[in-house]
């Protein structure tokens, strides 16, 4: 059988979706759960089941299916569940899952964790909380300036967002331009963009600085 034969690793997700589309969602769920229970490496079968349950509005069960993987080194399943909850408007549930992660997970995925927490707080309209949390983070954390500027923009504090972006030399000029364009200030965005030569020079400076941080004997990028 296509979904359960020797090549099930490759075909099971398609087989389960075909069953679901044929009105046999219960059978699709049963097949996926059987493989998860019996497989030596079951995580590859979890995502199709998570998606199936989410399509049925069974988000608590979907989270339960993914739960054993959430503190793994590879955070792909966890990220997928966070986005499913976001799309369903279950922002508090997504934030709760983030806050349940271990200290080791947060340390290993620090910039990803922090930027997603700010994003979810912003999506939930909890802007002051998002800014307060951002204030607890290392100022040189990757992506922090852009995340804070997004929150300020959502609050209607556009000039503060622009000033924040412009003050950070690591932020690409396109971030400033995109914000200006979103607010109908295209001419200002164009006028403020550096030339291609200046952009290339800035890129070389960033690469050189990063190489210096890596040490003289480190291989180039």
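-> sequence recovered:
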């Amino acid at each position: 059988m296509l979904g359960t034969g020797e090549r099930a690793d490759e075909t099971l997700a398609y087989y389960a979706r075909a069953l679901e589309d044929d009105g046999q969602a219960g059978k699709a769920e049963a097949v996926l759960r059987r493989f998860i229970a019996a497989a030596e490496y079951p995580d590859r079968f979890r995502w199709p089941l998570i998606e199936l349950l989410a399509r049925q509005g069974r988000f608590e069960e979907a989270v339960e299916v993914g739960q054993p993987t959430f503190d793994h080194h590879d955070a792909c399943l966890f990220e997928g569940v966070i986005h499913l909850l976001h799309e369903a408007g279950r922002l508090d549930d997504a934030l709760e899952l983030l806050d349940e992660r271990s200290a080791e997970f947060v340390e290993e995925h620090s910039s990803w964790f922090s930027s997603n927490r700010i994003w979810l707080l912003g999506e939930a309209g909890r802007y002051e909380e998002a800014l307060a949390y951002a204030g607890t983070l290392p100022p040189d954390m990757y992506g922090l300036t852009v995340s804070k500027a997004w929150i300020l923009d959502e609050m209607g504090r556009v000039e503060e967002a622009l000033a924040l972006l412009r003050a950070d030399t690591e932020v690409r000029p396109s971030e400033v331009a995109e914000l200006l364009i979103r607010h109908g200030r295209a001419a200002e965005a164009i006028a403020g963009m550096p030339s291609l030569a200046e952009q290339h020079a800035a890129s070389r400076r960033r690469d050189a600085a990063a190489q210096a941080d890596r040490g003289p004997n480190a291989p180039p990028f």
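The mean pLDDT is 88.
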